[in-house]
Design brief:
single chain; C8orf32 fold; 3 domains; six-stranded mixed sheet; five-stranded antiparallel sheet; about 45% helix
Amino acid sequence: MKKFMLFLLLLIIAGTAALAEDLCAQVLDAILASEEEFVLTGAESSQQADDAVRLFAGLERWTITPQDDGIHVRVFYPTGKRILSRLKSGTLLDIADAQIYDMANTILDGLITPDMTDLEKETAIYDYLCDHCTYMVDMEHYATDTAEGPLRYNRAQCSGYSDAFTLLCGLAGLETYCVHGTRLATGVSHEWNLIRLDGLWYAADLTFGDTNDTALVRDAWLNLPVGMQRGTVSWDERTLPGGEYALKPDANTPCFAKGHYAETEEEARAICLKALEEDGSLTLLYGGALDGVKFAESLGLQLYVSGFDSDSDVCTILYLQKQ
C-alpha cells in the first residue's frame, strides 16, 4: 500500500511539473509573438497561470481572468516592448509612446547606416546606451525601469537598459529577448538581453557593461556566450527562447572574440591581431585549451584577467590592449 501511495505521489508530482512546463511554453510563445492578450489552456487554477506568467521578464504587470475556454491573460509590457508590439499589430501609439518612438528613431538615424552588419548595428546601439546612460534606480522621477529612462533622461536600471536595447534593436531589425534572473552576489532581481546573430543566441548585459570603468572591460558583456553568465546570474531555463545558443569556449573551441569562434590558436591569433589593429583593444574568452598569459605575451599585449566559474568549468576572460 505504501509503495502504491508513493507511486501515486510521484505521478502527481510529474504531472504538475509537466503542466508547469506546458504553461511556461504557452507564455513564452505569446511573449515572443508580442501578444498583449492570450489564453492559457490546461491550467488547473488561476494561481498556476499566475505563477507561469510571473517567471518572465519585460512585464510591468498582468491580469488573470478565468473563463470557459481557459485562463485569459492580459500583459502590460514596458515602454519599448509595448511600442514594438503595437507597431507589429498596427495599433496606434498613444502620445507618450509616440514621443519615445520618435526619440528612438532620431538616435538610430545618427547610429545606423545601410551598409552595417547586424553585429555592427548591435555594437553601435550597445555603445550608445553605455556612453549616454548612468545607472540609477529612480522609477518615480526618471522612469529608469523602462526605455523612457535611458532615451529621455539618460538614466536607467537593469530593466530600463534591457527595454531600451529591445526597442532600439527591434527598430533596427535585430531580434532580441529580455531575460529575468537573479544576481548571485546580492540575491536581487536582474534583467538583461539575448540577441540572435547569424542564427545563434548571445547574451548582452548593458547594466554590467555600463557599470564597468573602462570600455575594454565593458566589451566583455556584449555577446557573451550564455553559459558564461552562470558565474554572475541565475535564471529559469524554461523562460529562454528555443534555437541554437553560442557556447562558451572549451577544449575544442579555445577562443571566442569579436563574435567569432576560433578552433585553433592560430585562428585566434589572426582574429586578435585584426581586432587590435582596428580597435586597439579586445575582449577574448578562452577555455583550458589556450594559455592566456603566454598567448598575450606572444602578441606583445597588456593583459587583464578575470576568472569565471561557469557550469563547473573554469573559463576566463582576457582583456587585451596594445602596450
